[in-house]
Amino acid sequence: MVVIRLSPSGKKGDASYKILVTxxxxxxxxxxxxxxxxxxxxxDNKPGKENKDIFNLxxxxxxxWLKIGAVVSPRLKTLVRTHKIxxxxxxVASPVTTPKAAPAPKKVAAPKVxxxxxxxxAAPKKAAPAKAAAGKTSRSx
Length: 141
Hints:
Elements: E1 2-11, E2 14-23, E3 34-40, E4 54-57, H1 59-68, E5 71-72, H2 74-82, H3 87-93
Parallel strand pairs: 1-5
Antiparallel strand pairs: 1-2, 2-3, 3-4
Helix pairs in contact: 1-3
């Protein structure tokens, strides 16, 4: 099952989260399919004051994965709602197109191989003369 969730990153005291599309079985900071955004919570968020969160989300990719059937984590759902990300507008702006059939591969002629003429035969090497044993001949008894 494919899920869209937050993955922790950043350092201690300065948290940030990647918004990832991943397989549900993958560990929280492990392999992912696609990174579609970033969330960095503001330090001094109080009710009634301006929200200081940094929330970047590729809305068209988010909508694409929702169409495919990805499940969104509850925390990410509330963040999208809070930051008023318009997913419906993203789907209209980037319609899903079906991929065109790939053109047939072109036939390529095999490269011509030139026939090489054999090199002239080298003269045979002369055998080294055999050394005769001292005082003995081959016919002596």
